[in-house]
Amino acid sequence: MKKLILRQKYLIDFTLSSLKRRLAKNLGLLLVYTLIVFLLASVMLFTHSLRREAGIILESSPEIILQRLVAGRHDLMPAEYLDRIGRIRGVTRKAGRLWGYFYDPAVQANYTLMVPRDRDLGQQEVVIGAGIARTRGVDVGDFLTFRSSDGRAFSFRVVDILEADAELVNADLLLVSEGTYRDFFGIPADRFTDIVLQVRNPSEVRKVAEKLTVLLPDARPILREEILRTYDSIFSWRQGIVFVLLGGSILAFVIFAWDKASGLSAEEKREIGILKAIGWETSDVIRMKFWEGSIVSLTAFLLGFILAYLHVFYGQAALFEPVLKGWAVIYPSFNPTPFVDGLQVATLFFFTVFPYTVATIIPIWQASITDPDAVMR
Amino acid sequence: MIELDDVKKAFNQGRPNEFWAIRGVSLRVDANRITVLKGPSGSGKTTLLSMIGCLSRPTSGRILLRSRILSGLPERFLTEIRRKTFGFIFQQFNLVKGLTVLENVMLPAYPLGLDHQPLKEAALKLLGQFNMESKADSKVEWLSGGEAQRTAICRALINDPEILIADEPTANLDTRLSREFMAIIRDLKQQGKTVIVTSHDPVVFEYAGIDTVVEMRDGNLAEA
Ligand SMILES: Nc1ncnc2c1ncn2[C@@H]1O[C@H](COP(=O)(O)OP(=O)(O)OP(=O)(O)O)[C@@H](O)[C@H]1O
Ligand SMILES: [Mg+2]
After folding, report:
1. Separation of CA A354 from chain center
2. Which domain holds residue A111?
3. Which of A43, A194, A336, A355 is deepest in the core (most CB within 10 A)?
4. Which of A158, A188, A222 is the last residue of a domain?
5. Domain holding B89: CATH number?
């Protein structure tokens, strides 16, 4: 037993000294390898946490949103529709919402203007998302002035800034009172943007939606589960694009690794011959090379993953911002809670460490099963 | 100690460039003797030596080590026999570059899983016998030819083999170093080792201390 351990120790010692002897080659390999793992892991961690954040946020959104369509286009919702819906079994709450987009020429960005349900605001008060606060450089107590659609200037005092942990969706949000909203956009008192309905039991959602289409033929119910699905596919799509872009570099890496790992140099071949001639077993040689491959790939994997983790969760995923979050001009600053999915790590591990180790071993195996008498020449 | 019985060796058998390097050699090598294989270049000395040393297998015929037939043994056993019984000194010395003299000497013992300290001491002691202890921590690529050879000898001896095999050991040495090498060989014989050497260097096969000279020609023994 002790012999076995000592033997492994000698093999690892020898492996380490071999790595040191071919330092330049191995460092180069490690660098490229780490970079690939870093990129792949970054994309994985990033899209995953994006999706998670979006999911968490949508959890609290209403089960059904009802929009009115006129000639196939989204139109304002008459308030009387709320009465026409009446009482549908399963619906625990219904309410009209007021929201819309507003273009701010000062920073060339779109804001989302909204009337909050759970908050009473004064006529000149506004609550803003952290993204707006950043781009406009305002803080609580400062004033913001916007020009309405009919040219009047509205001045608001910032009374609060929305907390940053849900910033992905509220970065560009402006909350104002109902009166101000109607005045600013010129929306009559008997109109809403849309209607939201809360349904406690998920299995009743579809039934409720069917009843709504019968009751209000010109309205379209949008289900939360559908939004979730759309989000999901958008994220998958974006992730897909990034993966395709990465595909090229992965391919390059595979070729590179194959070349480095499998193309035994004449010197390495000779070394294997010497080791075998002086009494090393084929299995010793393979094990030694296995250690070599494992040490390189594990180091690269750990380094790359840790770097990706820091990049995504502490560096705001700076590299991917334009690609993955490009739907808004006001970039939400992205501070997701660190979260690592075991299965993802395993997948990544399998697709990087495993092929490399195999690529190192196969040629060694070929070289080490041949008769060692070549070293005599 | 070693018996060869009608040993033949073909390279590229069955292909157009088939070549019989050894064409039926029967030979006895006695224990505690110095045996020299000589003969012109291409006569098959190295080929025969590598079969004796279990580095390759004969195409036909039998090789016996202490009456044990080696030819049919699986690779794993051959490796073990090679490690325990034979010490090799190669023509190009075949030291592993980038490692120190000491590491090179210890290399054949790694698969045995011995304790590090006694192994290191044994290696240093061997190096001391050959006046190499001052070079123990030098990288082998900086050694002179004579030093490289003495390192190779120490490496061949680290597992205390019974049989020492040397292929053209003096090819890279001048006459003085060649004589020194033969003196070392003679000492080793006095310590009980069996030595098999190939050479076409007169310094080797005309050396007074050797016991047997076997001459080869075109894959056969030339009856002397
Ligand atoms: N792997 C091989 N494939 C084909 N032919 C080979 C192979 N190895 C050796 N030979 C041939 O076998 C013959 C004997 O070679 P060997 O190396 O045994 O000669 P040698 O007596 O040691 O010569 P030298 O004194 O020059 O070292 C040579 O003609 C050589 O070309
Ligand atoms: Mg030869």
Report:
1. 25
2. 63-222
3. A43
4. A222
5. 3.40.50.300
Ligand 1 midpoint to CA B195 (Å): 21
Task: Tell me whether residue B47 is in a domain.
Answer: yes
pLDDT tens digits, one per residue of A304-342: 999 999 988 887 777 776 665 544 444 555 666 777 788
Same domain, A264 and A335: yes
Q: Which of A201, A222, A243 is the last residue of a domain?
A: A222
Cα distances from A68 to residues A101, A192, B130, B148, in angstroms, run 17, 10, 99, 92
Give the residue, by CA position, lying nearest to ligand 1 atom 31.
Answer: B42
Q: Is residue B6 part of a domain?
A: no
Q: Which of B55, B96, B113 sits opposite A6 (nearest CB)?
A: B113
Asked, for residue B21, whether it belongs to a domain, the answer is: no
**Are the CB atoms for A104 and A199 separated by under 8 Å?**
no
Q: Could you give the CA distance from residue B224 to residue B35 in angstroms, rounded to a whole number?
A: 14
**Number of domains making up chain B:** 1
ipTM summary value = 0.88
| CB proximity A280 to B under 8 Å | yes
| Residues of chain B with C-beta less than 8 angstroms from the C-beta of A277 | 55, 82, 88, 90, 94
For residues A91 and A191, membership in a common domain is answered with yes
Q: How far is the CA of A179 from the centre of ligand 2 (A)?
A: 103
Same domain (yes/no): A41, A173:
no
The CA B123 to ligand 2 mean position distance, Å, reads 29
What pLDDT digit, counting tens, does each position of A188-243 carry? 989 999 888 888 888 888 888 888 888 888 888 888 877 777 777 776 776 677 67
> Is residue B162 in a domain?
yes
Joined together, the tokens standing for residue A358 give 């195999």
> Taking residues A66-73, what's their average pLDDT?
87
Look up the pTM and report it. 0.70
Instruction: Give how far A375 is from chain B: nearest CA, Å.
Output: 8
Find out whether B56 and B82 touch, Cβ atoms under 8 Å: no
Q: Do A371 and B56 touch (CB under 8 A)?
A: yes
Total number of domains constituting chain A: 2
Most B CBs within 10 Å, among A276, A278, A287, A365, to test the B interface: A278
Contact between chains at A277 and B94 (C-beta distance less than 8 A): yes
- Shared domain check, A180 and A236: no
Min mean pLDDT across A203-207, A244-248, B159-163 is at A244-248
Tell the residue nearest (CA) to atom 4 of ligand 1. B11
Residues with CB under 6 A from ligand 1: B 11-12, 19, 21, 39, 41-47, 200
- At residue B42's C-alpha, the angle toward residues B38 and B46, to 5°, is 60
Residues A321 and A324: their CA atoms lie apart, in Å, by: 6
Q: Is A128 helix (H, G, I), strand (E, B) or coil?
A: strand
Mean pLDDT of B163-168: 92
Residues of B in contact with A270 (CB under 8 A): 94
Closest-lying ligand 1 atom to the alpha carbon of residue B50 = 18
Least confident piece of the model among A46-50, B33-37, B96-100, B182-186: A46-50
CA of A377 to the centre of ligand 2 (A): 7
Angle, CA of B212, B217 and B222, to the nearest 5°: 50
Rounded-to-integer distance, Cα A262 and Cα A297, Å: 14
Q: Which residue has tokens 């040490």?
A: A295
Residue B186's domain comprises 32-58+81-221
